[in-house]
Each structure stands twice: as structure tokens, then as C-alpha cells.
Amino acid sequence: MAGRGSGSGVDIAGPPGFYRSAMDPMTEPAVSADELNRYLEAELPFCAEMGIRCDRVASGLGVARLVYHDRWTRPGQIVNGGALMTVADVAVYLSIFTRTGIVPLAVTNELKMNFLRPAVGRDVIAEARLLKLGRRVAYAAVDLHEDGRPERLVAHATSSYVLPDPA
């Protein structure tokens, strides 16, 4: 079936009124986790400082890890909310790149987080799923959990990004 272009080079297949998720398991990601880690190291020094890295990618999926360190905690080894928001934001950035390639000037427009329970004494994994990728705006949902405990959801976030004008 013929697809409709969104103007961003992202083809959305299906009948009128049907929009395929921006996560497409049939499409290879535009970048690898290794490429993204090199980009984070070279261009986003706060990621190295905070111990944030890309764990894995798939088309429309970016998974970031915040390596546990006590400098990012509150009393009781609880990872602070600012650190959780940062790793969620990076995961969304990565999820966008899996579809567009690296677009440095994609910027956060909005980030909302619900804190569900404390992340205590472990790395935190942020899994961002790209829900919509338009010509100028991307929208994603992020689930955060403790490493090794995917059933222990510590936070849920939604975020939108503004994408630069195509050249």
C-alpha cells in the first residue's frame, strides 16, 4: 500500500486515517548505539559527567542508562529527580535519532515526569518510545526502571521535541 509522506522524509504507510507508530520494528535504526555513544561523548559532556550512555536502540526506541553514583542521590541512596529527568530527556533524544539520524539541533520543547517510586542504589534504565515523528515536532513516552528490575517502574515521562527546519 502506498504511504503518505509527512514532509520529514518519514513515510507513514496505511489507509487514510491510519498512522503507524513512529516505532517500526521492520525498519533498521538510522544510527547504532556505538555511534550514539560516540556522539554523546563528543558533543554532550554532561552525559559523561553524569554516567549517561546509550544501552541499545531499535527503530523509534532509545534506551539510556544512568550509571548509579552517590553524587546523584538524596539521603537513603535515592537517585534524585533531576538525574531521572536528565536520563529520560537523553533517551528521547536518542529515540528521535534512530529515525532521523543525528540531528544536533533537535531540542526539548516539553518534558513531564511522574515519579512513581524511588530508584534506590542501582543504575536507572530509561526506555523512550517515539510515538509521533512529524516534520517539526516529535513526541515520545519514557519508562524508567532500576537495572535488573524492569517490573519496578520508578517514573514515567512524556516529552516533545522541536526539530530544526529541513535545509
Count of DSSP H/I helices? 3
N-to-C SSE string, H for helix and E for strand: EEHHEEEEHEEEE
- Unreliable spans are 1-21
Count of β-strands: 10
Q: Please give the order of strands in the largest beta sheet.
A: 3-4-8-9-10-7
Mean pLDDT: 86
Largest sheet: 6 strands, antiparallel
Task: Give me the secondary-structure category.
Answer: alpha+beta
Strand content: 35-45%
Helical residues, percent: 10-25%
Shape: globular
Radius of gyration: 16 Å
What is the end-to-end distance?
Answer: 29 Å
Task: Describe the protein's architecture and organization.
With about 170 residues, the chain is α+β, with helices and mostly antiparallel strands. It is built from three helices and ten strands; from the N terminus they run ββααββββαββββ. The chain has helices at about 35-45, 45-50, 80-100, and strands at about 5, 10-15, 50-60, 60-65, 75, 80, 105-115, 125-135, 135-145, 150-160. The longest helix has 20 residues, at about 80-100.
